């Protein structure tokens, strides 16, 4: 009995929304960043799952690797994003020694 | 020569452009020479054209370029060279030339010398456009142009309030007349399908429209003429225009601009002839203006004001002539008047210049010994004005009066003759008060001097003109001017009817009557002012309220002020209040509303990252709902 | 006989992912959160293997478990966590956030489960060759651009963190 595609997608969805909840709820900036990584991972899973499903549709179909290629770029983006995000957090930490995002509200209107 | 007709206005225009661009810094005194030379060359070309027209080129159209063509509306900038326009060309260029020469001397000490000699040739340019146009629209361009230059030149010394106000008054009153001109012009187009003189006059002859419409057109044009030529009721700007420099008064308000109205009506003779009763109205207004202005001139103390009212009065004579069906007489008087009135103004200017810039005759007296040349030229001009034979004014004014009587307007003839008497009286008074008797202001008298040659030579030339120009109308009704102009104004419907020849008996009778009245006027003046019988002061006291009315110019200015100016000011005040409170208020309230909403909306910027993330997720939810709705068919497109 | 292996491992990995993910979101100790995040990444790599995308699984381990976890740990090390109470009204959005997320998550999960297509590993085995072929021919330009992006991120991170008094 093989695992249906829907199972993978369900896992991906649950993980994504867990991450989203974390982003909204948590106040520590580093933890928020971690939750963002969770979301990215969830989307990666969905992409690869659909990509493999498409790969079964037609042998040699030149489109069947698009999902996987996209995932490679997501890796790249995620890495860059974590680097820059941490740099921002550290820079902000230097200004006011807090990573509590609720206290970083000087841009209010 | 005729082919070069466009050089005539072109040269003064070039002079204007050069002087206004470079006059202030580089050309200095040369501006005067440039302007004068330009006008002089124009005069020479005009003389050349005159000879060609006399030789037989009775109607030539010299096109310049196509102004606009919109559907049926086609206007060319073109010149119509015929005897009428040629006569005007000669008067304008020749008289302008000598006044330019005079002005070089008169304005020599003025800081705005270059400015004066920018506007002066510009004026000549506009006047020439007016005269040369072959259609009403181009004529109107010149018409408005002279109005503008009049404003610029009256208000030449604009730092003082009186000239500025006078310039404004002149322009506004002119504008009322301009409105009339426009109504006439547009109606002409609507009725005849063209604004071109030749076309319109052709169509009037072949297929005249209803007399009501034609009367409307003519009345509208006459209103324009009233404004420009200072007839009742739009005359009161002219005396105030004396705030401008004397050469301006001489050129614009004696010889040229104010004659534009006369030229307009003369040019439109075919229209006016077919319009019936309007002509009688023109004559009536002219006669009334003549006597009205003459009565005011009797009691004025400013020498230039006397001349101004005299101009209004003489213009009235010209319109009287037009109205009784004698356009040639009107043009004749226009020509002679240009000479002797310009001379009177220039002479007054010479007196003012030599008498320390004082214009009040009550401080003058006995200047005859100090300024002999000015004195004698003024006497000649005064005699011409009073229509003493054989000076120029006699021939032209007599022809007007004779035509009035012969063409069936005896009452107007009486008015004209009586006004002639008044004219003789007031000019005698003016000359006596200025040049004869005991000097009333000793200090000024001691410093008085004759004007330099650059000013006196034009006086001499104009004096010669005042003597000789009258002979272009000799023999009466059959002279050179008659045969010259007649082809341009004859319409075959009665006006300027061809005379078989001079009726000497008729002529001598009328001449005798009007000359006698004139001499009476002179004698009365001499008696009152040189001998004091009756004493002028006693007469004024006895006349009491009548005298006051005259001195205050019939209180017309006050009347206009209250009736029209105050109303306009009230309206302007209301408009201003509307603008400030309602229009500005609207805009201000709009700004205030935006500020208010901005103030409210900015509260969404809490600065809390979590809030922002929540709104992102909320938006995502919305998108999902919408997308899912479309996909499942739950939401319809 | 080995039929049950695939679902078994799937369940194992799924449990790991969701459990560790929930822990990351809810726990209070940040080091625990970081390490559990690494566990999530590892289970994710296992998922990729199940899908037959071993190259992707390899990258996952290299990049996520390796680099990103370290970076996060750096962040944890350099910052101090302080726990303040809630301040303004708008800062208390935990209930709202939980509600929104659940409202979306559950229907989506149920919807997802309706995909019954089976996934079988492709007969050609592995995804390295097809992936490489696609990446370096059809998508070579984005590949190059991605490297420029990494450079930019690198420089940007350095600029952001530089101290001003140097």
Mean pLDDT of chain A: 83
What's the main sheet of chain B like?
2 strands, antiparallel
Parts with pLDDT < 50 across at least 5 consecutive residues of chain B? none
Structural class of chain B: mainly alpha
State the domain count of chain A: 1
Order of helices and strands of chain B: HHEEHHHHHHHHHHHHHHHHHHHHHHHH
Summed up, the helix count of chain B is 26
What does the main sheet of chain A amount to? none
CATH topology grouping of chain A: Helix Hairpins
Distance from first to last alpha carbon of chain B: 82 Å
- In quaternary terms, these chains amount to heterotrimer
Strand content bin of chain B: under 5%
Query: Helicity level of chain A, as a percent range?
Result: over 70%
Radius of gyration of chain A: 18 Å
Q: What is the strand tally of chain A?
A: 0
Main structural class of chain A: mainly alpha
Total strands of chain B: the figure is 2
Q: Termini distance of chain A? A: 58 Å
Whole-number average pLDDT of chain B? 87
Topology:
The complex is a heterotrimer of chains A (109), B (637) and C (166).
Chain A: H1 5-25, H2 29-55, H3 66-95
Chain B: H1 7-27, H2 30-54, E1 60-70, E2 73-81, H3 83-106, H4 113-132, H5 136-154, H6 161-192, H7 197-206, H8 211-228, H9 237-240, H10 246-255, H11 260-267, H12 269-274, H13 277-297, H14 303-323, H15 327-354, H16 372-385, H17 392-406, H18 410-435, H19 442-447, H20 453-468, H21 480-489, H22 504-531, H23 536-543, H24 545-551, H25 556-601, H26 609-632
Antiparallel strand pairs in B: 1-2
Helix pairs in contact in B: 1-2, 1-4, 2-3, 2-4, 3-4, 3-10, 3-15, 3-20, 4-5, 5-6, 6-8, 8-11, 10-15, 13-14, 13-18, 14-15, 14-17, 14-18, 15-16, 15-17, 15-20, 15-21, 16-18, 16-20, 17-18, 17-22, 18-22, 23-24
Chain C: H1 5-26, H2 30-50, H3 54-78, H4 94-112, H5 128-138, H6 140-161
């Amino acid at each position: 009995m093989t695992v249906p595609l829907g199972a993978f997608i369900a896992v991906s969805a649950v993980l994504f929304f867990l991450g989203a909840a974390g982003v909204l709820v948590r106040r520590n900036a580093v933890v928020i960043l971690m939750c963002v990584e969770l979301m990215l991972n969830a989307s990666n899973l969905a992409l690869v799952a659909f990509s493999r499903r498409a790969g079964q549709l037609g042998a040699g179909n030149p489109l069947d690797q698009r999902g996987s290629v996209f995932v490679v770029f997501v890796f790249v983006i995620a890495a860059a994003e974590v680097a820059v995000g941490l740099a921002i957090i550290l820079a902000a930490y230097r200004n006011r020694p807090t990573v509590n995002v609720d206290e970083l509200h000087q841009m209010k209107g | 020569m005729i082919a070069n007709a466009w050089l005539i206005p072109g040269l003064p225009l070039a002079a204007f452009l050069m002087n206004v661009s470079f006059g202030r810094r580089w050309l200095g005194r040369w501006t005067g020479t440039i302007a004068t030379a330009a006008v002089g060359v124009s005069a020479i070309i005009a003389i050349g054209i005159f000879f060609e027209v006399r030789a037989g080129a009775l109607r030539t159209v010299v096109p310049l370029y196509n102004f606009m063509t919109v559907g049926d509306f086609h206007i060319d900038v073109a010149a119509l060279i015929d005897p009428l326009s040629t006569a005007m060309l000669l008067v304008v260029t020749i008289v302008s030339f000598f006044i330019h020469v005079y002005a070089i001397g008169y304005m020599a000490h003025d800081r705005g010398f270059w400015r004066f000699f920018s506007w002066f040739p510009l004026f000549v340019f506009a006047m020439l456009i007016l005269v040369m146009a072959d259609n009403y629209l181009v004529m109107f361009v010149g018409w408005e142009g002279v109005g503008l230059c009049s404003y610029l030149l009256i208000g030449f010394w604009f730092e003082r309030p009186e000239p500025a106000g006078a310039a404004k008054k002149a322009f506004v009153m002119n504008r009322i007349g301009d409105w009339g001109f426009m109504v006439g012009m547009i109606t002409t187009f609507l009725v005849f399908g063209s604004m071109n003189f030749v076309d319109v006059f052709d169509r009037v002859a072949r297929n005249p429209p209803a007399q009501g419409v034609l009367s409307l057109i003519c009345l509208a044009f006459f209103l324009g003429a009233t404004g420009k030529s200072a007839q009742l009721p739009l005359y009161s700007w002219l005396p105030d225009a004396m705030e401008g420099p004397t050469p301006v008064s001489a050129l614009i308000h004696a010889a040229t601009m104010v004659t534009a109205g006369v030229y307009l009506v003369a040019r439109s003779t075919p229209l006016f002839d077919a319009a019936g009763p309007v002509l009688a109205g023109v004559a009536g207004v002219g006669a009334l203006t003549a006597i009205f202005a003459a009565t005011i001139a009797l009691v004025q103390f400013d020498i230039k004001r006397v001349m101004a009212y005299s101009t209004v009065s003489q213009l009235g004579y010209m319109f009287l002539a037009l109205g009784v069906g004698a356009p040639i007489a009107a043009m004749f008087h226009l020509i002679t008047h240009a000479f002797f009135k310009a001379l009177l103004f220039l002479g007054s200017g010479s007196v003012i210049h030599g008498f320390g810039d004082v214009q009040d005759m009550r401080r003058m007296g006995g200047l005859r010994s100090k300024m002999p040349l000015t004195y004698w030229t003024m006497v000649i001009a005064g005699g011409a004005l009073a229509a003493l034979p054989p000076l120029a004014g006699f021939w032209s004014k007599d022809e007007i009066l004779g035509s009035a009587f012969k063409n069936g307007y005896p009452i107007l003839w009486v008015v004209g003759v009586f006004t002639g008497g008044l004219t003789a009286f007031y000019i005698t008074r003016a000359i006596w008060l200025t040049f004869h008797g005991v000097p009333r202001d000793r200090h000024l008298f001691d410093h008085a001097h004759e004007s330099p040659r650059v000013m006196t030579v034009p006086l001499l030339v104009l004096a010669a003109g005042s003597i000789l120009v009258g002979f272009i109308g000799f023999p009466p009704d059959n002279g050179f001017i008659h045969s010259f102009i007649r082809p341009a104004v004859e319409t075959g419907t009665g006006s300027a009817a061809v005379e078989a020849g001079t009726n000497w008996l008729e002529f001598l009778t009328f001449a005798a009557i009007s000359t006698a009245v004139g001499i009476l006027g002179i004698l009365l003046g001499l008696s009152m002012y040189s001998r004091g019988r009756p004493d002028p002061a006693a007469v004024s006291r006895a006349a009491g309220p009548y005298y006051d009315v005259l001195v205050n110019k019939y209180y017309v200015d006050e009347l206009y002020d209250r009736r029209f100016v105050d109303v306009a000011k009230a309206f302007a005040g209301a408009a201003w209040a509307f603008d400030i409170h309602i229009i500005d208020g609207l805009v201000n309230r709009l700004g205030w509303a935006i500020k208010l909403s901005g103030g409210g909306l900015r509260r969404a910027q809490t600065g809390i990252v979590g809030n922002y993330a929540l709104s992102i997720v909320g938006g995502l939810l919305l998108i999902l709902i919408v997308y899912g709705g479309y996909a499942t068919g739950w939401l319809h497109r | 006989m080995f039929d049950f292996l695939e679902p078994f491992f799937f369940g194992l990995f799924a449990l790991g992912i969701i459990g560790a993910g929930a822990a990351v979101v809810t726990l209070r100790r940040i080091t625990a959160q970081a390490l559990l995040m690494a566990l999530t990444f590892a289970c994710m790599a296992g998922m990729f293997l199940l899908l037959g995308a071993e190259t992707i699984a390899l990258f996952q381990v290299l990049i996520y478990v390796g680099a990103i976890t370290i970076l996060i740990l750096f962040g944890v090390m350099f910052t101090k966590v302080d726990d303040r109470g809630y301040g303004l009204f708008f800062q208390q959005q935990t209930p709202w956030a939980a509600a929104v997320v659940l409202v979306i998550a559950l229907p989506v999960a149920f919807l997802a489960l309706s995909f019954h297509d089976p996934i079988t590993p492709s007969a050609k085995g592995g995804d390295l060759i097809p992936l490489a072929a696609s990446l370096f021919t059809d998508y070579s330009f984005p590949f190059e651009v991605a490297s420029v992006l990494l450079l930019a991120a690198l420089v940007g991170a350095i600029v952001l963190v530089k101290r001003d008094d140097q």
